[in-house]
Each structure stands twice: as structure tokens, then as C-alpha cells.
């Protein structure tokens, strides 16, 4: 079972009611947490969610655009000030490590006294690749189509009832790889930068619905949203209803299980 808390659900611009998209995946009942990307005030949001410094199991950076990574120095400093000693694994797509290291070095964070070990791993972008396992949990990454090195994430939990599968598209245009990876997913979290049409290398609501028809996930949650778009109107036209197809909101939590 997973608990997913959306710390931000907006696009690269962000809005008064929507910060840039990043979210927390908690593996229950064990309580280990995994942060997907790192936007504004990450420590305060972790505390509000009840995550203690040692309970953050890993950080997964989908790509090195500012809106997905700018909170990293604040997160590392806050964990250090809060007394974390446990190493922190950071996973990023191949080619993004330079930016991750640069942000840490900019503020001399690795040189802080008693700084915990920061373990950076670049993930290949040539198909679905395992990042790590922990008990019944397996986390994998896969290439997204966004113009710079970008990776989506897949969380798999083996249970006596079957497999719980949470797939996150990351920023991407329509990605045919998701037709198989998201097949029968328990929850598909997908970016949706526009309703009728997305700007740049992003997905529209029409793209997400096309993927839904191919992959048949049990639930779809939209993130990376643009204010003022007619998402609700199009959802009504397609007869898409919550909780099976929903727009994420900042601070929203949901449980994902079989």
C-alpha cells in the first residue's frame, strides 16, 4: 500500500494555489518515504506529512529543469540541521548528475561538518531499469520524452493479493513506452500541461486519455497543471469522473492499494 501526498501540482510557472509539481510516495505500513522531485519548502512539507529526517529513503529527480530541482539545496541543509546521519540516495537520469552536484557545491553543502553521505546515481535511459528494492518494494525508472534527459518512475509492491503498481510519467509528450509500463497500473500519475493542447514537450488531456484507453489503468491522477485550462469541461465531455480520473491539488493525499 502507498500513500501519495502531492506537495505541488502546477506547471513550470507555478501559481498561488499550485506550486511546481513534486510529491511524496510513502510505502505503508513500514513508513519509508520517497520524494519525487524537489520544489519549494520541501522540509516544511515533509514535517507536515509526518516524515522524520531518517525516514526519507531516497530522492528521485526526474530531470534537471529548475522547477523540478531548485528545492534540493534547501532539503539537504534542512535534513542536516535536523540531525540526519543516514546516507541519502539520490537518483537522476543519465546526464543530470552534473546539475545535482553543482547545486550542492554552490552552497558548500558536502563540506558541512558531519554532513550525511549523499549518494548520487545516474539511471540509464534505455528502457525500464531498476533503481533499488526494499523488502516487497521495487522502484524502477524509464525514459520520458521531454527534450532533455528525463526519467519517469515506477513503484511496484508485491502483496498476497497481487502487485500494486504506481507509475509516474514525468514531464513528457505522449510516450508509447507507457502503453505497456502503465498497463493495468493501480495508479497512473501523468503530467497534463494543457487541456486541448500542451505547450512545448508536454502532454495534453487528449494525450492522457489516449494513453488511458491503451493502458487501462485503474486510476489516473493529473499533475503539472496549467491554471485557466478547461480540464473539467473536457473531462465531462469524455465522461471521466473522480476518483478514477482526477485533477491533483496541492496538499492532497491518496492511498493506493488493491
UniProtKB/TrEMBL annotation:
Molecular functions per Gene Ontology: 3'-tRNA processing endoribonuclease activity
Keyword Electron transport on entry: no
Pfam families to which the protein is assigned, alphabetical: Anti-Pycsar_Apyc1
Domain Metallo-beta-lactamase: 19-224
Domain of life according to the entry: Bacteria
Stored InterPro entries: Metallo-B-lactamas (IPR001279), RibonucZ/Hydroxyglut_hydro (IPR036866)
UniProt keywords, alphabetically: Endonuclease, Hydrolase, Nuclease
KW Magnesium (keyword) present: no
Alphabetical list of PANTHER family matching this protein: ZINC PHOSPHODIESTERASE ELAC PROTEIN 1
Name of the protein this chain belongs to: MBL fold metallo-hydrolase
Organism: Heliobacterium mobile (Heliobacillus mobilis)
Top-level taxonomy: Bacteria, Bacillati, Bacillota, Clostridia, Eubacteriales
Amino acid at each position: 500500500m502507498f500513500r501519495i501526498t502531492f506537495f505541488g501540482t502546477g506547471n513550470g510557472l507555478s501559481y498561488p494555489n499550485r506550486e511546481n509539481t513534486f510529491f511524496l510516495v510513502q510505502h505503508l505500513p513500514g513508513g519509508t518515504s520517497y520524494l519525487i522531485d524537489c520544489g519549494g519548502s520541501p522540509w516544511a512539507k515533509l514535517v507536515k506529512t509526518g516524515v522524520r529526517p531518517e525516514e526519507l529513503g531516497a530522492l528521485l529527480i526526474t530531470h534537471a529543469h529548475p522547477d523540478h530541482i531548485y528545492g534540493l539545496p534547501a532539503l539537504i541543509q534542512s535534513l542536516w540541521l535536523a540531525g540526519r546521519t543516514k546516507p541519502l540516495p539520490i537518483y537522476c537520469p543519465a546526464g543530470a548528475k552534473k546539475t545535482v552536484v553543482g547545486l550542492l557545491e554552490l552552497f558548500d553543502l558536502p563540506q558541512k561538518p558531519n554532513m550525511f553521505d549523499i549518494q548520487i546515481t545516474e539511471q540509464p535511459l534505455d528502457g525500464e531499469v531498476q533503481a533499488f528494492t526494499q523488502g516487497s518494494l521495487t522502484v524502477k525508472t524509464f525514459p520520458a520524452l521531454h527534450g532533455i534527459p528525463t526519467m519517469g518512475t515506477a513503484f511496484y509492491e508485491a502483496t498476497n493479493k497481487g502487485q500494486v503498481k504506481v507509475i509516474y510519467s514525468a514531464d513528457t509528450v505522449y510516450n508509447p513506452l507507457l502503453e505497456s509500463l502503465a498497463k493495468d497500473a493501480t495508479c497512473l500519475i501523468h503530467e497534463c500541461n494543457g487541456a486541448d493542447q500542451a505547450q512545448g514537450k508536454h502532454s495534453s488531456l487528449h494525450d492522457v486519455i489516449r494513453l488511458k484507453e491503451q493502458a487501462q489503468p485503474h486510476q489516473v491522477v493529473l499533475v503539472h497543471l496549467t491554471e485557466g485550462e478547461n480540464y473539467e469541461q473536457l473531462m465531462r465531455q469524455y465522461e471521466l469522473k473522480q476518483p478514477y480520473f482526477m485533477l491533483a491539488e496541492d496538499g492532497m493525499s491518496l492511498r493506493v492499494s488493491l
